[in-house]
Amino acid sequence: MNRSFIARNPSVLIFIVILALFTLGVTVLSEAFGTGFLSTSFVKTLGKTLCLCLVAVAMDLVWGYCGILSLGHFAFFGLGGYMIGMWLMYERTRDIVVGSLAEAPIPPTEQEIVDGIGTQIFGVVGSNEFPVIWAFSDSLLIQLLLVVLVPGLLALVFGWLAFRSRVAGVYLSILTQAMTLALALYLFQNDSGLRGNNGLSGLQNLPGLGGVPQSVVSMWFLWGSAAALGLGYFLSAWVVSGKFGSVVRGIRDNEARVRFLGYSVETYKLVVFTLTACIAGIAGALYYPQAGIINPAEIAPIASIYLAVWVAIGGRGRLYGAVIGAAFVSLVSSWFTGGRAPDIPLGFYTIKWVDWWLVLLGLSFVLVTLFAPRGIGGLVDLWTDRRHPDRHGADLGPDKGSLREREADE
Amino acid sequence: MSTLLEVSGVSVNFDGFQAINNLSFQIGSAEMRAIIGPNGAGKTTFMDIVTGKTRPDEGRIIFGEKSKSLIGMNEARIAREGIGRKFQKPTVFEDQTVQENLLLSLKNQRGPLAVLFYKPTEADLAKVSSLADDIGLGKELLRKSGELSHGQKQWLEIGMLLAQEPRLLLVDEPAAGMTPEEREHTTDILVEAAKTRAVVVVEHDMEFVRRLNCRVTVLHEGSVLAEGSLDHVTADQNVIDVYLGR
Q1: Among candidates A239, A271, A391 on the partner chain, residue whose Cβ is nearest the Cβ of B146
Q2: Given A262, A396, A408, which is nearest B76 (Cβ)?
Q3: Assembly ipTM
Q4: How confident is the model over A89-99, as pLDDT tens digits?
């Protein structure tokens, strides 16, 4: 019982080693530091996938372990992206404005520069004033803090209100959908202060590092994303490994029992919900500079539903399942929708994967839920030979989020 | 013997249905008590009220030497005050081992931070294994509790309650669905527990109640109909009319 954390959880070590080998492999094959076998845009896709894996780990923590089916975690992901995007866009525009004003006969005042940046950034929404929320956009440090604080605070307030009123199960899922929808609709407005449906763009350019080619920048972000995924995975595995994990899994399977044991269920849910929102924010902050653009469509309700689908397909209640699901589905998805998958001519009709991919995804989600609830991660059980409690098919607890027998693990 | 729990003049109304009607009840600090009564008499509602699941419309609930009022506390707070509750159906965490189940219940700090950095001490592990021996699960420590038999789950749940070190134990139909041998073992566990704390058992089965050999409170329509030894209450004409006679 008192062996070291790694010894008790060999899967963490295995995961980190695989992640390190993957990162090394990409580096060796990259354009910037290696043979150039992988194009820069593909390196970016891989880097983004790592960020999606990180947010999937957060989703697994909140859903697979704590039983809260949040369908709003992409809101936190997007908010993290917006926070870092504000700094990137401000500083980048500042470089451009300073450059263009440098040729003027009289050196520009600080106010003229700020006005110039305002016009550049907010011209598209018919304004040139900086909204209040951009107050700290010139400070990298503060915006980095906001990447964690803004999603965390939103989750804290939302979760406090929802959990305190004992909203649970499908009602909570609907509430989180409403939250992400409301946020998306608000951000779509031009006067939201974040450029409405234009979103923030040009995020792939790092301010002050214009001379560094994108092939190098893409590798930096891949390393950063891999490090964040490794740390996030380690942290999540540590959180769920000990007694805290025991309580949290107890809440998933039988909330009332945990409550009558003297644990404040609401507090635990709030801690997990807020922690995962912070992780999602960090993942978003690493994702969007690689994507180059963020707009409110990114946090539409469907995005959070995809997140749940990834985790379900990968296998919930096991962290590597979430990573496998997110990586597998998002890479396959970009292959199918990228037009590279060959069309299937049936004579009377040609299946174009761009149109039919969603149908395929939906179908596989249904099939996995029905026939392989342990998901892709369940394949690991074939050789680790895990034993599962025999419940003759019944769920492992009375609560809606409780594990079903066939997906139980550990 | 000092009074541990005092319920006085409690009433609860569910949308017009008077579930508990001016109920008064007392139990001492080391006493076994059985509560019997026909369906709908308010037995489970009574437990809900004491454990904070249901809020009474009126009345007082006083617990412990310091005479704390339990009204207004939430379930977790009341549990930490020292009231443990066993449900009718065995509710253990099936996905976790017997040891994890017991460690989870062991009396320790319940805050998220303390729990996050918790490491089981030698003393805790020793306590868990001696508890497991007491409930007859000493050899099953590392098994998933979902694999246990129905009776073993019931014992594990009682063990979890004992691990909480409560001063009052509320037990709802502990013998339901058990074999005769299992019942006997359950009786032993409960009688042993009642030597150091108050134990309230809600039970339908008269034979089981007789074996507990304790005072009996008969509930009917949300209030106390009779109280005394089992022989005394079964001889009571009111009790015969509403419950036993049918």
Answers
A1: A391
A2: A262
A3: 0.88
A4: 999 999 888 88
d(CA A333, CA A310): 11
H helix runs in A242-352, sequence order: 243-253, 255-260, 265-291, 301-314, 319-337
Q: Is the pLDDT of residue A395 over 80?
A: no
- Mean per-residue pLDDT for A25-35? 88
Instruction: For A192-231, write each residue's pLDDT tens digit.
Output: 889 988 999 989 988 888 788 888 999 999 999 999 999 9
State the CATH class of domain B3-244. Answer: alpha beta
Nearest Cβ partner of A396 from B95, B105, B120?
A: B95
Looking at residue A205, the DSSP 8-state letter turns out to be: S
3-state secondary structure chain B: CCEEEEEEEEEEEECCEEEEEEEEEEEECCCEEEEECCCCCCHHHHHHHHCCCCCCCEEEEEECCCCEECCCCCHHHHHHHCEEEECCCCCCCCCCEHHHHHHHHCCCCCCHHHHHCCCCCHHHHHHHHHHHHHCCCHHHCCCEHHHCCHHHHHHHHHHHHHHCCCCEEEEECCCCCCCHHHHHHHHHHHHHHCCCCEEEEECCCHHHHHHHCCEEEEEECCEEEEEECHHHHHHCHHHHHHHHCC
pTM for the full predicted model: 0.89
Between A246 and A3, where is the model more confident? A246
Q: pLDDT-based confidence at A398, cuts 50/70/90?
A: low
A391 in B contact zone (CB under 8 Å): yes
- Residue B147: pLDDT band (50, 70, 90) is confident
For residue B94, list chain A residues with Cβ-Cβ distance below 8 A. 253, 389, 391, 396-397, 408
Spans of all domains in chain B: 3-244
Considering only CB atoms, which chain A residues are within 8 Å of B118? Answer: 242-244
The C-alpha angle with vertex A66 and arms to B128 and B163, in degrees rounded to 5, equals 20
How far apart are alpha carbons A258 and B80 in whole angstroms? 12
